[in-house]
Amino acid sequence: MTTNDIINPANLVYAKAPIMNDVPMHYCPGCSHGVVHKLIAEIIGDMDMQEKTIAIAPVGCGVFAYKYLDVDWQQAAHGRAPAVATAAKRLLPDRLVFTYQGDGDLAAIGTAETIHACNRGENIAIIFINNGIYGMTGGQMAPTTLGGMKSSTSPNGRTVPLNGHPLDITKLLAQLDGTCYVTRQAVHTIAAVRKTKKAIQKAFENSMAGKGTSIVEVVSTCSSGWKMTPEASNDWMVENMFPAYPLGDLKNE
Amino acid sequence: MAKIKGAVVVNTERCKGCNLCVVACPAEVLILNKEANSKGYNFSTMANPDDCVGCAACAYVCPDACITVYKVRV
Q1: A39-63 pLDDT, tens per residue?
Q2: Are B61 and A189 an interchain contact pair (Cβ–Cβ within 8 Å)?
Q3: Nearest 5°: CA angle at A195, between A247 and B23?
Q4: Cβ contact, residue pair B63, A188, below 8 Å
Q5: Residue range(s) defining the domain that contains residue B13
Q6: Strand, helix or coil at A7?
């Protein structure tokens, strides 16, 4: 049997989800954003919620997510996605409302909105992409940047006396009574991608069931900001990011 | 014993040559092509199509959703 015989719609195993548009994504080669976009598209398709989803886009690399996923989007001011999501979900409680934010958005300028939305227990899901850097603006230090990690504003590595400790905001959010599901995942291997898909699905289901706020942190790479190849970025993430941001459920109620 | 044969189709214009599918493939089927697409990226391609088992590992880790996977029992 030749390859051309195998390539037949009847033998299809995996294809791009229809909710994902054909327009090529602007992300750098190997960026974790693409994998998470794909998972969101697959889950919304599986849940048959395309017409009933309102996604809130951040400021950061993820700002153009509205071009790539064919659902309703509202772009929020920097860090204010949870506040916009609060309004959307309260006005239209039958919709699936989620925010898609990076660490510079969620853990820096939007800390207040994030903490208060989670503390109120808004019935939204928060997808949090944590690559420890401001990717879009040129690799500056973020609150989540690791100790000793080099960035364009900490060229000799982050130090505690000068820059303070890295902020583990997901751990912080797990302490709040309003959150029902707080988990940390990654998308560097097939197993990790499958686990992240389950986590996002659970977060969306919690949102629709009115159980409270769900947070799915995805520990990600930024090969351009870290100045490594995508493959080396994944290895660096496993070696350095995972000890500081260990994977697994922090809260599951 | 039934043998499983697979094949992948790469959307070469969408591919950015990040190499993650090449690393993820357990059967070492994929390589980056020496030729480049219109954006200048060396796109992923099947070098050993006979070894493909259609596990879709490449497609799962592909950040740009450029890989479609087919599988058949022979």
Answers
A1: 999 999 999 999 999 999 999 999 9
A2: yes
A3: 90
A4: no
A5: 4-73
A6: coil
Q: Is the CA virtual torsion A184, A187, A189, A195 positive or negative?
A: positive
> What angle is formed at CA A85 by the lines to CA A79 and CA A90, rounded to 5 degrees?
150
Q: Which residue has the tokens 């995805």?
A: A218
Contact (Cβ atoms closer than 8 angstroms) between residue B56 and residue A13: yes
Positions of chain B with pLDDT lower than 50, given as ranges? none
Name the residue ranges covered by the structural domains of chain A: 3-252
**What is the fold, at CATH topology level, of the domain defined by A3-252?**
Rossmann fold (3.40.50)
Per the CB < 8 A criterion, the answer to whether B24 and B74 are in contact is no
CATH of the domain at B14: 3.30.70.20
A contacts of B7 (beta carbons < 8 Å): 3, 6-7
With an 8 Å Cβ cutoff, are B7 and A7 in contact? yes
Domain count, chain B: 1
Residue A21 banded pLDDT, cuts 50, 70, 90: very high
The pLDDT of residue B1 is 61
